[in-house]
Write a structure and sequence with these properties.
By secondary structure, this protein is mainly alpha-helical. It has a single domain (63-269), classed as Orthogonal Bundle (MetI-like fold), CATH 1.10.3720.10. The chain has helices at residues 2-36, 53-61, 64-95, 101-113, 116-129, 136-160, 164-172, 177-205, 209-214, 222-231, 238-269. Helix 3 (64-95) packs across helix 6 (136-160) and helix 6 crosses helix 8 (177-205). The radius of gyration is 23 Å and the shape is globular. It is a multi-pass membrane protein.
């Protein structure tokens, strides 16, 4: 009994830390959500009255629809191209033994480990010097520089965890490499690909530094707009800023929730754990 009591006591700091963290995160989100619907919230625990006035004003004043469209266009293309490159590359790096395998792993980790400025500034210098900066193609290209390594860091361990004996058995029965990859590997990879898609999309959608370095007025994403407004918002009503923040948070929360549900369904469908 004493040992059990000590074990329970040892868990108390963990529970306190977890509860504090959850309360902190929920508190921040609740403050933003309640704040964007409030008309006057200064000296009371809850706002005195609620309305959607500031939500409508933020949507109109800041051109949210335009920045949503630009962000989705750029990030969807960058994420799709990243995945097209990630899937075969991750398979080769997970399954094939090469002398430079560890070197390749370290190389692909550099864009994740290094500060984005160290990557972005040289690329921005090149793009501006040849006159192709501030275009959709360049913004997509520089996001892919982050998207591919980030996707590989997620998908390679997933492939390494798959049972290689299934592939060997398929080859023994006469299946070629292409059939093994499309009929055996891809179905097993779907949960991992969905997980990679979630993380890469959110990472690229929230990227600020690289888009700021090579983007222009026509290619600035919602992240850039939100930062610019919040950094020069001394005279703006707090409810208006909360509304802008909510518009920025909602797509990521909805997308993450839907894709997590989809990932769970796919794992059940394809026998994932």
């Amino acid at each position: 009994m004493k040992a059990k009591s000590r074990k329970n006591l040892a868990r108390i700091p963990f529970y306190i830390i977890m509860f504090t963290f959850i309360l902190f995160v929920v508190g921040i989100f609740a403050t933003v959500v309640i704040g964007c619907f409030s008309n006057d919230w200064s000296k009371t625990f809850l706002p005195k009255s609620f309305s959607t006035f500031y939500l409508k004003q933020a949507w109109t004043n800041y051109g949210i629809a335009k920045y949503y469209l630009v962000s989705v266009e750029i990030v969807v293309v960058a994420t799709s191209l990243s995945l097209i490159c990630v899937i075969p590359t991750a398979y080769v790096m997970a399954r094939k033994e090469m002398k430079i395998k560890s070197l390749l792993h370290q190389f692909f980790q550099l864009p994740i480990l290094l500060p984005e400025l160290l990557i972005g500034i040289p690329l921005a210098t090149i793009f501006y010097s040849i006159g192709i900066a501030e275009s959709y193609g360049v913004v997509v290209a520089i996001l892919i520089v982050i998207g591919i390594p980030f996707g590989l860091s997620i998908l390679i361990p997933f492939i390494e965890a798959l049972d290689e004996r299934v592939e060997i058995a398929a080859e023994t029965l006469g299946a070629n490499k292409f059939k093994v990859f499309t009929k055996i590997i891809i179905p097993q990879l779907i949960p991992g690909v969905v997980s990679t898609l979630i993380n890469v999309f959110v990472r690229l959608f929230t990227n600020y530094t690289l888009v700021l370095l090579v983007g222009g007025p026509k290619t600035f994403t919602l992240t850039i707009k939100v930062f610019n407004v919040l950094s020069n918002a001394k005279t703006e009503p707090q409810a208006l800023l909360n509304s802008l923040t909510l518009y920025y948070m909602l797509p990521m929360l909805i997308f993450t929730f839907l894709t997590l549900v989809l990932e769970k369904m796919l794992k059940k469908r394809f026998g994932g754990k």
